[in-house]
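Pilot study result, target chain (144 residues):
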Amino acid sequence: MINPVWDKNMNTDSKSQTDSDNKWKDIPVYSVREDSENKFTVAGSGYFGLLLKSNLSTGFSWALKYNENPDAVQFVERADIEPGDEKDRRFGTGGFELFVFKSLRPGTSELKFIYARPWEKDKKPEKLIRIQILVELNAARLIL
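Predicted structure:
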C-alpha cells in the first residue's frame, strides 16, 4: 500500500536545510519502513521520493547499492531532512534521508539500500532494506 508522507514534522523552511531539499517538497514521498515489506506503485514519467529514518550524527547513513532496472527508475538526488522546528532539535537526534527518483517507463525495479558508516569498508552494514517499485503508466496523462 502506498504511504505518502510530507508533514509538519519535516521542516523544509529551516536555515539548515538546503535549496535542494525545498525543491522536492511537492513530489509524492513514501515512507520506508524497516520492519515490513516495502512495495510502492508510482506513476510513470514523474518524480517521487523515498524517505528513510537515519541519525547522521552517529556516522551512519543510507546508500543506494543496487537498482535492478535503471531503465524504469533512475536515481536523481539525496537530501538530508531534519525533523521539527530548529528550536526543538537537539544534537544527536535522528532525522531522515530523502532519496529522489525519476520514473522513466512502466516496469518494476528492486532497490537495495544499506545503512553503514562509509569509511568502514570491511564491516557488514548495520541494516539492509529492499524496496520494490512498480512504475505504472498514468492513464490521466494519456493523450489520445
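One observation from the pilot: Residues 19-141 form a domain with the Immunoglobulin-like fold (CATH 2.60.40.2020). A full batch analysis is planned for the follow-on phase.
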